[in-house]
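Incident log, structure service

09:12 report received: a user says their structure output differs between two submissions of the same chain.
09:20 pulled the input from the user's history:
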Amino acid sequence: MLSARDDMKIFSKKVDYFGCELTVPIWVNWLAMDKDGKLYGFKHEPSSDQGFWHIPSKGNDYIYITYVATEKNWTETKQKV
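09:34 re-ran on a clean worker, output below:
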């Protein structure tokens, strides 16, 4: 039987997001921060629109990750992981 810790290792991965190590679900391929500082993980490459990131016509394969405090402009935060 798997413990919650084992489950986390199997279904997640560690990624570097502008110098910050994060643990995200294994299916996350892109990270991007909205204008309000909320960081989301996406399965498909997101597009920006009016202060937030979204995936047009690809479904809802995204997840809230964490809040990020950064000096970066939100439009420059998309990163492939």
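09:41 both user submissions now match this output. Likely a transient worker issue. Closing.
09:42 reviewer note: Residues 4-80 form one domain. The chain has a mean pLDDT of 87.
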